Amino acid sequence: MKEIVLKLYEFDELSKDSQEKIIERERWNVMEQCMDAYDIDYKKSMEAFEDMTDTRVYNWEVGYERYDFSYEFKYNDPIYEHPTDYNRDIFPKNLCGKLLFRYINNNIMPHITKGKYYSIGKYIDGKYNYKCRRSRVILGYEDNCPLTGMCYDYYLLKPIIDYYNAWCTYPEGFSLEDLMRQCYDNFFMLWHMDKALERAIGNKVIDFEKCEGNYLDVYPLIGAVLQKELRSVLSENVNKSISRNMKIKATKYGNDYRVWLDYAGDYRNENIE
What we know:
By secondary structure, the chain is α+β, with helices and mostly antiparallel strands. It has a domain at about 10-110 and about 165-200. Helix content is about 50%, strand content about 15%. It contains eight helices and four strands. The protein has helices at about 15-55, 95-105, 110, 150-165, 175-200, 215-235, 240-255, 255-260, and strands spanning about 55-60, 65-75, 115-125, 125-140. Helix 1 (about 15-55) crosses helix 4 and helix 4 runs antiparallel to helix 5 (about 175-200). It is extended and about 90 Å long.
């Protein structure tokens, strides 16, 4: 039989070296707990979007290094049946042009459009009275988070809103399948960047107390976030010479291994698995 005696110390009683080791250990624990909480909210937004669009995401994964996903439409029933030729039936994933715009307008926009928010508050007889309402006439869909109330809703809805505002400028063959892929790609890319940012903070790439001296390390993170937006800018109707110069510069930065494959800062913590 053994008798084990443990001496317990308060944090302030520990040596400076021991305090730093504990802080380092708990910093990662707290970060993981925060990301677990964020993941729950991300998943709720994704599930609500799946229900609204009759789609299903499967074989998905997201981490600070990469993300991947597949998706499908839940139903294969045509929304338009040709009276004589079934080969000309139109399925949701094949909707393009005006038909796609009408589908978005009739089946998605009503779920994400809300009346303009009004509120007023004032004191009456020493008691504060507050009233609020939403307009039934003036409607809006910008910056709404109607699925769960969390900002992650907007990550999914932004491509739909962009399309709704400028559908005439999209390629003729742009389909509902393309639009859904944009929605999920935007969502998972930002989820992935959220994890990468947390990892970078954990690796002390971003030190909020010394922001002035580490902008070169912050740049890759900002660049990675903007990469998705740059793709769409470079592929749309811009001046060819400008587009060519931008692509040359983008390729130059894109070939920098340290910028794009290690932007979470693991090169600073080789012992971290």
